Amino acid sequence: MSIFYVIIGLLLLVLGGEFLVRSSIGLSFKLNISKMVIGMTVVSFATSAPELLVSLQAALDGSPAIAINNVIGSNIANIGLVLGITAIIGPIVVNKDFYKLNWPVMMLFSLVLYYFLWNDNVLTQIEGIILLVGLVVFLFVLIRNARKEEVSLDEVDDALASIGYGKIVVWLLIGGIALYFGSELLVDGAKDIANNMGVSEGVISITMIAIGTSVPELAASVIAAMKGEKAISLGNLIGSNIFNIASVLGLTSLIKEIPVTEAQILSRDIFWMLGFAAILLPLVFIPNKFVLSRFKGVFLFLGYALFIYLVL
Questions:
Q1: What is the pLDDT of residue 219?
Q2: Is-contact 214 49, C-beta < 8 A?
Q3: Do the beta carbons of residue 138 and residue 274 sit within 8 Å?
Q4: CA 288 to CA 281: how far, in whole Å?
Q5: Of all residues in the chain, what percent carry a pLDDT higher than 90?
């Protein structure tokens, strides 16, 4: 029954995330917000909704390990699993923004999160506010820089510009309800599986739940790569990692402080997250500059497989 809860929960999260993204884009068009701003803010935040709901539900249910490791595991999966598979399907060209802004900011947020957790074994409300303020500053710089150059956002569907307010409201309701019940079922099912298998909630959350909440990004990346489109780029995945740390953990810690209840979070898991983030820089420059080749994709995917093997 627990496995059934997890499967249904994952399906509801994917469904809810899709409806939330579509309704958010439609509403943004109605409010005359530019495509560039939609892609960098509304869509990025909406795709982080599954992680946010799962982390918040876990923290409120007294399972902080799930809240933290959901984000850590999702960030690892975004690079090792999603980016790895996408690069295997087709090489990814990296632009200069990678090393000038996106990668340094992702590393900064990752290191700040490690310091906050290592310092006192708890993510406090003040630290959550710092993460959210940092996110606002990053978005301000990102949008200001983007306005200086032509930005193409193929992933934003123009057809959504013509939908009515009624459909937007219905989509928002469907998305919100699906995310709420999906997060409840996923967290409850994962906790039961952890108890039945005799493993910690942290292990379940950094593997099963993390992969589950990364399913929308994985599906979109694979479909885009097979079509030869650039709907999902390295920058999008790095942005997702930044949002996961800043918005998901930031907002969750504002509502309820998140203590570190499992030692391996600080002794093992977070170092894997930092390692996957750090390895991107040399991979982008060596041996071919600004290209993530199929070989590099295989390297990332095998690294993720090793991580799952060692964790389980």
A1: 66
A2: no
A3: no
A4: 12
A5: 31
